[in-house]
Task: inverse folding
DNA sequence: GGATACATGTAAGATGTTACATGATTGT
DNA sequence: ACAATCATGTAACATCTTACATGTATCC
């Protein structure tokens, strides 16, 4: 889950300029809690974004202590680029949190059509991966259910199936809203 | 997901003494592929386990190049201790992979009763967390479904519900096998 | 005025990534 | 002999964790 913290910060700052402390609080008090709120991760990440000129200290820096950041034009471009990356098999396996983060930011930053395109890709990648898992279990033997290793396998498979059901439902819902 | 690679290696070595290369291959060719097979992660991890005296080079080191490791008595104790740790809220949020890894190793290392105990804890922790999420969405407002952020929230919720269904089914199945 | 929350920061250490390097073994 | 695969390792870099440190604002 390489630099997704940086993009999470970027997306939140895009919604509303705010200080590192505010961002950290969101990582504790909202379901974005799989991001670390530790100062040792958030503040260095903000500094990296600042050095990269993706964010800038808000001009209205009347507050003495709080350092409020806003997203620059370059930062907006970087965010949009990230949001529009294709969905890969690796994303399915490693980057579920990152994928759903992208989904949450897509609509407000790139638009409904891009969101639908993302969902199509997500659905396709998920379905392909589920097929892969089924093939594996077929070769593995039919006694998947007999031992706990096989049950663990089913745990993973059923999780992906739930995700697939979600993508299908949401894609249809958003498509209908478009018309 | 701090040191779960080390425990994955330990558990696999417990199943069968083998070399780092064999372990890495399992991370590529089996659904344990969310572990990194890169030499830069696996070999240093094996060295750490060796330094800690949890594994030892297999005495029958007839092979010239391959370094086959086996689990020591101390390593078995460490593995069993790890497997029997209580299931926490943090595990649910951060350590799903680690939890399911523990499940897969529990039966063969600690026994069926310990596996059932684990499933009970898992189920309880999951149910509590799902309640927490529902409470959050209730306070958040009833219009969860209206925007993509709310849909992303549902994605997470439905994933946890699928996991809960799995724990219930598997717990019942294993309990029946016991009788 | 003292405790608590706000707000940012740094340092040490652990882990993982990518990329490179090196030799042994096997197949043709 | 040559290529491909086997098998291990290292170095540089990035990121995150834990713990500590520091000062400000607010509440009672």
Result:
């Amino acid at each position: 889950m390489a630099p997704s913290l940086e993009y999470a910060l970027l997306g939140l700052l895009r919604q509303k300029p705010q200080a590192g402390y505010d961002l950290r609080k969101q990582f504790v008090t909202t379901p974005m809690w799989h991001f670390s709120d530790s100062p040792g991760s958030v503040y260095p990440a903000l500094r990296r974004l600042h050095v990269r000129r993706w964010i800038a200290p808000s001009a209205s820096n009347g507050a003495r202590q709080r350092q409020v950041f806003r997203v620059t034009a370059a930062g907006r471009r970087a965010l949009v680029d990230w949001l529009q990356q294709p969905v890969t098999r690796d994303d399915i396996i490693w980057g579920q949190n990152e994928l759903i983060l992208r989904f949450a930011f897509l609509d407000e930053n790139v638009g409904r059509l891009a969101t639908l395109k993302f969902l199509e890709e997500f659905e396709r990648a998920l379905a392909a991966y589920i097929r892969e898992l089924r093939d594996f279990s077929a070769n593995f033997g039919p006694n998947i259910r007999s031992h706990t290793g096989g049950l663990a396998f089913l745990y993973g498979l059923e999780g992906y199936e739930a995700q697939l059901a979600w993508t299908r439902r949401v894609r249809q819902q958003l498509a209908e809203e478009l018309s």
